[in-house]
Amino acid sequence: MSRKFLETESPSWVTDGLISEAQRQQLLARYPPEAQPLGLLPLLGSVLVGLSALSVVAANWQALPVALRLALLLGSLTGSYAAGSYFLRRGNDDLGHGLIGLGLILFGASIILTSQLYQLVGYDASGLLAWVVAGVAVSYVYGSRLLVLLTVLIGAAVQTYCVESLGIFSYVTAWLVVGGMGYYWWRRPDAVSATVLAVGLLWQAGLLIIVLHAKITWFFVPAMAIYAAGDWHPNRAVGRAIQVPSLVAAYLFMFGLATFGETDAYANILRPPLLPYLAALGAVFGLSALGKRAQGRLASLPEWLLLLPGFYLSGGLTLAVATLVVLYAHAGSVLARANREHDSDQLTLGAVLFVAATAVAYFKLTWGFMDKSLFFLIGGVLLLGLSWYLRRRNAQVLAAAAPPVAQQAGTPPAPGNDNEPEAPAHNS
């Protein structure tokens, strides 16, 4: 249930006598105001204006005098920051942050163009590091999710350049993003910034695995470390937001293993040394479990089922059955938690995961020996039956959550309650 829905519908509930005004205020207090959406128009505007300016200048760059080139760079940079500060003082935050973001983009362009201007050949990323430092700095100064997004993107771009062009991994860039923006997320919790940061950190982790030429499954050690950080954050919604990208990556990996892991051809790319890998993943698991316990979130511990190293099993039926069991157990844990918490959204997610696991099991285990017409007929019947059962279960969960709400609102118990005394009969 969203606050916007409550603000819209709750006055009519008070008018109809379903709840009192005091109870309405309690409901509103339970659902705090939602964060303002990220201003995509200022972001897109900043990017398009920046690209336009860069294309015009780049087309005539060599023909311009050196002094004019420097003047253009400095003028556009200072002009963007000055205009952004002006609109921020006037209370136009979206436009102001958009212009500050444009200034951040132009700062990076100035570094690159100045390097070309003086024919400076870069064998390291020291110049581009200043761009990341500037992004972290302006994010703290202005406290804008737009600037957080740009900084994470800049960090990813600089790291990609280091890996692709220089063949190195810039640990300084990684630590600027992890430490600078991670501390920003911890001190200024925000769901959008958390998700953006998690995706950026996963990108950094993937590039590190590429540079180190390590088994790709090592990726899940830093990925689940990001997940563990969410377990320790006191704000449940924000902690959950930073965990979702890691969970999605783990689920897609397990789903792909269940679908395509028929043979041992994957052994050379998926199987790291057993003991070091389990020790590292176990340490992260322990950190996550301690965080869940400290914040009272142990119910989500079964999400770690997705990290069971089934790729150490031989391919074929053994691996297929093992991964399907994991997918079913994970879907069942989501459904069980949704049932306990009366969470319809989690119930829907669990239903989708259950149907996905059933579809994989059906295709993997029956396609080879069942006639195609019978295959599709039974599959359709199974999916229709699952749809009916899950809809029925969803209705039962919502119905179970309704009586407490009705009692809080002062609705009298339904007739026929054994504990309710009967009204005295009146003689005619």
TrEMBL record:
InterPro entries: DUF2157. Pfam families: DUF2157. Residues 403-428 are annotated as: Disordered. The chain crosses the membrane at residues 40-59, 66-87, 99-121, 128-156, 168-186, 198-221, 241-261, 273-291, 311-335, 347-367, 373-390. Keywords: Membrane, Transmembrane, Transmembrane helix. Residues 12-147 form the DUF2157 domain. This is DUF2157 domain-containing protein. It comes from Hymenobacter negativus.
